[in-house]
Amino acid sequence: MAYDIPDEIKYREKIFLHFDIKQLGYLVAFLILAGLAYSLPIMQEGKMILAFLLLLLGLGFALFDLERKLLDRWRYLTNPRLGGALDKKIRAFVGIKKIEDDVIYLDNKEMRAVILVKPLNFELLDEAKQKSITLNYRDFLNQLSHPIQILIRTVNVSLADYFSNHEAKILKTKDESLIALYNDFKVYEEGFIKEHFVKERLYYIVIPYDPAASQYAKHRTTYKKVGYSEKRKDAQLREFDERVKIIQTKLGNCGLVSYRLTTNQLISLIMSYFEGYIEVNEDYLWRISTCELFLKERERDG
Fold first, then answer.
1. Which residue from 58, 59, 32, 36 is spatially nearest to 47, judged by alpha carbons?
2. Residue 54 CB contacts under 8 Å (≥ 6 apart), including other chains
3. How far apart are CA 201 and CA 283, in angstroms?
4. DSSP string, 41-60
5. By CB count within 10 A, which of 35, 39, 79, 256 is most buried?
6. Residue pLDDT, tens place only, 80-128
7. What would you measure as the largest C-alpha separation in the chain, in angstroms?
8. 208 contacts: CB under 8 Å, gap ≥ 6
9. Residue pair 242/80 in contact by the 8 Å Cβ criterion
10. Each residue of 172-224: pLDDT tens digit?
């Protein structure tokens, strides 16, 4: 199996005075340009300044990787840096063609599925359980036949679903004291989150799938990269679903619960990057800790 060698450790033969062929090419080219500039019919000071600047540029390209820095700057200036989800340039830059069937379809005809993984508190587990999870996670990584992306996001906490799921249950009890306590806690938690800028961490695994390299394509000599029949598409979706389920099963062996994002959830995930609410390096507060603080302050206030 061949492996790509990172550029910073690739071998480059030194031709002269620790310069490789590319560096020497830059030096010779800018020396020639400096000589031509010096022969221009302009003032002596102007010729010397222009030739000196060309020599400095040559040293910059040869010694300080000025070519890469200029190319990076050019890409930064020419690529879109600001725009909405409906902007054509932004959509082309992101490279998403459509989202359906719980799958992200990319412009290059590859597909992506995303699963949300619920974290567990590793430190609270006993030593035997920690060792078991570590071994299972190692096996999970070693048995991967394709790359995956692990994505961690720190986002604003949304309490809408949390309160809507509990409010109906509380109201059904018709217990006035319990309802009053719930309303007090709701106001307290919303205020606490706003005051302390509480964030929530979300953990995702992005799973890739290339239809052109799929098992179905390998066994179908009539496979064409452009266009999909319904039969071919269904077969590839089943193969992709099986890949996702295998990943979830292996995560389950590590004690991790995971959920595959639906089409609407995938759309919300992508759109959230254009809303400007993502922040990093903020503390995550467990909801049970908030409950404890609420009860302590309530007891203190009598």
1. 36
2. 30, 33, 34, 37
3. 9
4. SS-HHHHHHHHHHHHHHHHH
5. 256
6. 777 766 677 777 888 889 999 899 999 988 999 999 999 888 888 899 9
7. 97
8. 110, 111, 112, 146, 147, 148, 149
9. no
10. 888 888 888 888 888 887 787 777 777 778 899 999 999 887 665 555 544 44
DSSP 64: S
Structure tokens at 226: 């452009």
Question: Which of 218, 208, 219, 204 has its CA nearest to residue 244?
Answer: 208
d(CA 151, CA 173): 41
Question: What is the C-alpha separation between 208 and 202, in angstroms, rounded?
Answer: 19
Distance CA 231, CA 110 (A): 18
Q: Which helix (H) or strand (E) holds 298?
A: helix 287-300
187/179 Cα distance (integer angstroms): 12
H or E segment to which residue 114 belongs: strand 111-118
Phi (first) and psi of residue 208, to 5 degrees: -90, 160
Number of Cβ within 10 Å of residue 68's Cβ equals: 11
Amino acid at 48: M
> Residue 79 corresponds to which tokens in the numbers above?
């690529």
DSSP H helical ranges for 84-175: 88-94, 127-142, 160-173
